[in-house]
Every structure is written in C-alpha cells, then in structure tokens.
Amino acid sequence: MPANRTAGGRPATRPRPVARGGPAPRPSSARKPQRAAAAGVGNHPKRIVLSRILMVAVLVVAAVRLVQVQGVQASELSALAEQQRATRVVLQALRGQIVDRNGTQLAFSVETRSLSINPQWVKNDWAKNPDVYKNLKLGTSYDDYCQRLAEFIHAQLGDQAKTADMLAKIRDTSTTYQLLVRDADPVKAKAITGRYAAVTGSARQQRVYPDGTVASNVVGYANWREDAKTPQGLIGLENSLDDTLKGTNGTSTVDTANNSDVQLPGTIRDDKPAVPGSNVQLTIDADVQYQAQKMLDAYKTTSGAADGSMVVMDAKTGEVYALAVTDGFNPNNYGDYKLEQLGNAAVSTPYEPGSVNKVVTAAGAIEYGIEQPDSVVDVASSFKMADRTVTDAWNHGDVQMTFAGVIGKSSNIGTLEVAKKIGEDRYVDLLTKFGLGQKTGIGLPGESAGSVPPRSTWSGSTFANLPIGQGLSMTLLQMAGMYQAIANDGLRVPPRIIKSVTKPDGTVVATPKPDPVPVVSPQTAKTVRDMMRAVMQRDPKDNQQNGTGYPAAIAGYQLSGKTGTAQQPDPALGGRYGSSKYWITFAGILPADNPRLVVGIMMDRPNYTIPTVGSSAAPLFHQIGTYLVQHFQIPMSATPSPVVQLQLP
User: I need a labelling partner for 597 at 20 to 30 A (CA). Which of 165, 217, 335, 530 fits?
Assistant: First the structure.
C-alpha cells in the first residue's frame, strides 16, 4: 500500500506544525470540503435536544394516562373488567317440606335445571364459524347440527324432551330465547350443556307431591317464579305459609371463562350461603286422609251428589286428622284442573246444616234444666210460629215423644217447642259459644265464618228456622267443632291443622294450643252424648223406636251423633226453599262412652230419591268409622248402647 494512502484508500493528511505563540495557519483550499462536513456535524446537538424534548413529551403523556387509569378511572375500569369476567350467582334456598303427623312427605322440593337456547345466535354463529362446529364433530351442516342436538337432548331426557319438539324449538330463528325444557335432572342437564355450549342451563326447583291428590286441597300448590329464583305458594298452605317455607336465597361471585357459564376453579368469593325454608308438620294423618277422600268420592258417585266433604278430628285436642273434599286435584298436574277444583269447601263454603244444628237445642235444654232425656214432649202434627207453619219429615198426628226421641227421630216440631222454652237470647248465646258466625282460625286460606243473622234483625219467623238448621250457615269444620265440644265435656277447642314448624337449625316449634271455650258443663255434655246415642238406635221389634241414623251403627261401639237434611234455596222460586235440592249432613262421636274422634260429613245435592244413600250420610259414617276404629286400634265399648223409648204408644 502507498505511503500516502490510508488503509481505507483515502489520501493521508498530515497535521501541519503550529507556530508557537502565533495563530493557526489558514487552511488551504483543499480543506474546504472538510469544513463543510464539519459544519454538518455541528448541527447534531440540536437534533438530540429535539429528540429528547419529544421523548419527554411522550413520557409526560404516558404518565398522565397512567395516573388517569390508576387513579381517576381506577374504580370505573376495574368495575368494567370485573363485569367482563365475574358472574353473580344466586344460591337457591331449598323450599321446606310439608309432612303429615307421622313424617310422611306431602310436599318437598328437588333442585332441577331449565334448558334454553338462542336460535338466532346459533344459526348466525354457524354461518360465521362452520369449521369450529365441524372440528368438534357437532354436525356437518347447520341442519345436521340441529338434528344431532335435538336427538342428544332426547337421549338424555327421554319423553320429557321429544326430538320433534326440541328440533322445532332449536330451528325457531324468529326468537332469541327458546325454553327447551323445565325441571331437567341436573346431572343429565350438565351432560347436555357440557357438550353443546349453545344450550344454557339455569338452576330452579321442582315442587313434588308424592301422594298426588292426598290432602292436595289442604297442602295446595307452589309454582316456580323465575324472577325471584324460588317457588311461590299459590293456594292452600303453600300460600298461607309461603314465608315459612320459602327460605332465603344466597349469593356468591365467581369468575367465568369466555363469557360462558363455566366457572373457574378457586374464584368463588363474597359467598353468602342460602338459608333453607322451614319444614312444616301437619296434624293430618295421610292414611286417614286417603281413606276419607276415597270413601267420599265413592259415596258421591253412589248418591248422585254434586260434591261433598268430610272432617275427622281429635275429640280432645281439636287436631284435624283428615279434611277431605270430593274430586281432589293432583298438584303435580296443576294446569289440568279448573279453578273451582282447587279450593277447600270444608272451610270456605258454608251451607245450611239442617237437623245437625239440633245439638244446640239439646245442649241448652239440659244445661238450663228445661228437659231431661226421658222428659215427655207433646209433639203436635204441626207447629205454628209467627207466620211459619212447621211440620216433621214424616206424617203423624199428635204424639208424645221423650226428649231423647225428639232428637233421635229428629222431630222439627218437638225441637221448636223445646227451643221456645230456652228463649231467643239464651239460644243466640249458645250459637256464639259453639263457634258459629266466626272463623275457627285453623290457618287455612279462604276460611269462611259462615252466617248467623244478628239478633237485632230477627223477625218472628227467624226462631222458627234456626233451631232446625235453616236460616243460618256454617262450614263443615264449624259443624265438627260443635260436636267436638260435646265430645270434650263441654269445652270447644278451636281446630288446628299445623302441628309444628322445624326451623333450618333443627329447632322444633310446636303450634300453641288454642284456649278452650266453655260451652256447657261436663255433666250436660255427657248427658247430651248419652241421649244422642238414640240417633243410631234400631229396635227390631218396633220401628217407632228407630233413630234416623241407625245405618251409621258399628257393632261393638257406642256412637253418638245426628243426621241432618236441609232444603236448599231455589232461584226458580225466588230464593225460597225448594223440595228438590238438599244438603245432607252427619256429625258423629266415636265412641260415645269414651270419645276419641269426631267426624263431620256433608253431601251437596244428592239424588234424594235413592233410599238411604241419597237421603242420609249415615252409611258413609259407618264406612269411615269402621276404618277409624281399626286404624287407631280403638277398644270396643264395655257395654252396648241401651235401647231407650223414643215415642210413647
């Protein structure tokens, strides 16, 4: 390489010596290009300064944004992020059970799932992402996907979700929401939602009534409320005890993946557990209730009645063992019934009782010392009071009856003659003590108080109606309560049907026993019971000594009771009593010598032309009574009822 060349090929430059103490020599013209280059290098610091200014500006903007994000908008942005990944979950409170006195379940809840789909979204998503569905082997086309989904749901749920029904709903792209099935088994529902993300499963409860119609008109019905995420009682005790049964839903927050319902493990927080509802135990005996309903329905058919009801009650405590009506509904198929089939006529529908109301006259006459069972009463062929002329159900001339015979043979004329001696004021006081014209307070919704005309409104003929059970009304439960007072030595205990409530922590709270209401003295009550045994009396030697209710008799047991027949007002006669439609009633005490049970029966509009069955409820009392003495293992009476004289020769 030449000596005057650099390694890079450029000419070598040698520095010229500088005179000591003098100025540097001027560069030659050959140096001018280098000076120009030097001038360019001299501008570089400006660019650096500008770059630094720009960098500082960027950092300032970033810092301001960071402060804004982490400070001013921190809460708002955090909340938005939380909404994107966090899901608030409602934890269902399981509704409490309703059980009978022996723990037999009458109503309980099970957790289920409702399955739904957004048909519009499914179709649109398939159009956008067909390969995703194909890769997951969910279908080769949209139609194939729908068919496979419908078939899979049916395979899991059976007839609860038929393929044709599912397919029609999945393909209904006119809607963004389609309910596929309610109350699916949670395990089977999970298999569906796990395979098909388009199907959404929502937690719910199904109310189950294992015995169907048994006590349905007492228990009632509860239906799922989607807005409240809980079942709500609509009728019966399910309604009146809704706050007790429903419990309190809980909540928790969880993170979910990709806007789905899939919960991320370990993300549960803000957990507030659900509090289940309380369990309710009734005084009802499911076996007795079943038999009462079965026999009542059969008697309705046999007698040609429009409907009927029956009460079985504990003679001492007033606890109700059965409260039956005809044609009970099955709450498991609630939607199959008409509104009028869902009520409880035994507590909500009053009627005129007829001769069962003669117990008031019987009790008053004994209590006030007016008559004794063997007192002789002159019974005329007819009886006139004010503008009313009253006759008996059978034709007779002027006869003499014992007071026991007046009740046993159900003489209207004899009853009114004795009631007149009691007097109107004392009589109306007895009606009040027996609980008429006032609700029993049993705790069932829709209870009626019945109707007793106020004393101030009575006319001369009012007192010709009331003692024979016309002109006032009562529910079957009130009627049974009247005889419960006689069975319980003169103390009326208001009936109850709720035995206890068991709270979620296991604490059992017994229903307070109602205060008894004194009606008559114990001796009066016993005398009336003994006297009313004549109703079930049958003398094979003399038909005149037969009581009206002898078909009710049960071999080996003393029974007390009373038959009743009441004419119904006829709209065609301007509301006057007709002669074609009747209420027939029966009230009985079992056994009379050691009362354990009281039974009340009412049949509405039976075919009165059918002998015995159409004109009396006594045979039905015999049927249910025969079952009850076996079910409760009630010992036979020590002695049979004595045959007493009802009518003098």
Answer: 217
3-state secondary structure of 323: strand
Q: In this structure, are 266 and 320 located in the same domain?
A: no
Residue range 24-35: mean pLDDT, rounded:
42
Q: Which residues contact 525 (CB under 8 A, 6 or more apart)?
A: 363, 485, 486, 487, 488, 489, 490, 519
Domain with residue 221: its CATH number is 3.90.1310.10
Which residues 6+ apart lie within 8 Å of 482 measured at CB? 356, 359, 360, 434, 435, 436, 492, 587
Q: What domain range includes position 465? A: 286-550+558-631
Structure tokens at 147: 């068919």
Instruction: Report if residue 459 sits inside a domain.
Output: yes
Question: Looking at the annotation, which residues are catalytic?
Answer: 355
DSSP character string of 251-304:
EEEEEBSTTSSPBPTT--EEEE--BPPPEEEES--HHHHHHHHHHHHHHHHHHT
Give the CATH number for residue 526: 3.40.710.10
pLDDT digits (tens, 9 = 90+) for 611-627: 888 899 999 999 999 99
Of 640, 601, 606, 603, nearest to 624 (Cα)? 601
In a domain, 79, yes or no: no
Same domain, 202 and 317: no
Tokens, residue 405: 């015979």
Q: Quick one: three-class SS letters along 367-378? A: HCCCCCCCCEEE
Per-residue pLDDT tens over the stretch 411-420: 999 999 999 9
Q: Which stretch of DSSP H or E encloses residue 244?
A: helix 242-246
